[in-house]
Design a protein that fits this description.
alpha/beta; Helix Hairpins; Rossmann fold; 50% helix; Alpha-Beta Plaits; 334 residues
Length: 334
């Protein structure tokens, strides 16, 4: 087990005193061990008290050597101690300790592994939707570039210990945004073993690795390069549609469109197991229901107004920012 820096410094100072005590005892035959220890202390401390007895020529030579050696040793020891104190009490160190405490309090949060381009985009979306999250990043350079409100954990996401430190047992989702497909595969396997019911989204670089990640336990596998290529082609073939879709969820102003998912299990009981016609969402909030996902995962586009909505289903609504705010107030989802 490694010794603490403070203990090493104390041992070093004790060694210097021992060196001086033995030296005075051997050089000055009239000095007792206590007299030699006393001479070592007053010599190192430079307090200027009188000597126990007259020093011999050899004693004076040893005193000079002891003063120079002791002064150099104490200077280095205190410099090292100052560096350790500055390091342990640095802003970054304090932030790491604060983040560790906050992470242990998280529940139903999302763990983002890697803070590269994809990781930063994922965090940006989570922040906009006010979802709890923690970022795992091993690169010191990336951590120092984090915003002050980013909750992060320094460590290797491939380690089970790091995932446990990210409170994976209480997590709801995990995003694998590491640059290597092999690393993402390993994280998916580890996360699925530690938390069998966690929802995992992973990026993939090579198309042939997509199936492997799915078999490892990833619920969703995303290939950013493929999506980027499709998006660029769609800008040429369906420019107005893409421009409209691209404006969703950005909340530029009160009239900008926004898509929201409503979990019907969280709405008040008077709105559960009701039809859209009974809810009157369009009349009350200005939101349009564009989709419904039933408890079996079947997706219905533009559901019928008289369709009875199961409490275990989810609604997909489209509306302006002000309309979404009204919807959240209506369902007490604020």
């Amino acid at each position: 087990m490694p010794q603490s820096p403070l203990l090493n410094i104390l041992l070093f100072l004790l060694f210097i005193l021992l060196f001086g005590t033995i030296g005075f005892y051997l050089v000055e035959s009239e000095y007792s061990l206590f007299d030699s220890f006393y001479m070592s202390v007053i010599t190192l401390s430079t307090v200027g008290y009188s000597e126990v007895g007259m020093l011999s020529f050899q004693g004076r030579i040893f005193t000079v050597i002891f003063i120079l050696t002791g002064f150099l040793g104490i200077t280095l020891a205190f410099r090292f101690l100052g560096e350790q104190v500055a390091q342990n009490w640095s802003v970054q160190k304090f932030k790491l300790k604060k983040n560790k405490t906050m992470i242990q309090k998280l529940k139903d949060h999302t763990i983002v592994c890697g803070y590269g381009r994809n990781g930063r985009q994922a965090v940006s979306r989570l922040k906009r939707h006010k979802q709890p999250y923690v970022v795992i990043e091993n690169e010191e350079r990336c951590i120092t570039e984090f915003d002050s409100d980013i909750l992060f954990l320094k460590g290797n996401a491939l380690s089970d210990t790091t995932l446990l430190n990210a409170n994976i047992n209480e997590a709801k989702n995990l995003i694998c945004a590491l640059p290597s497909d092999a690393d993402n595969l390993f994280v998916v396997l580890s996360a699925r073993q530690l938390k069998p019911d966690i929802v995992i989204v992973s990026r993939v670089s090579e198309e042939q690795n997509q199936r492997k990640l799915e078999l490892a336990g990833a619920n969703h596998v995303i290939m950013p390069d493929k999506i980027g290529g499709d998006y660029m082609a769609a800008l040429l073939t369906l420019p107005e549609v893409i421009q409209f879709l691209g404006s969703l969820n950005w909340w530029v102003d009160e009239t900008s469109p926004n898509v929201e998912e409503v979990d019907l299990r969280k709405v008040p009981k008077e709105f559960q197991n009701k039809s859209l016609a009974t809810m009157e969402l369009r009349k009350r909030t200005g939101c349009n229901v564009i989709g419904y996902c039933d408890p079996h995962g079947n997706q219905i586009i533009n559901p019928d107004a008289n369709h009875i909505l199961s409490v275990d289903g989810k609604l997909i609504v489209l509306g302006s920012r002000s309309s979404i705010v009204k919807l959240n107030r209506m369902f007490h989802l604020d």
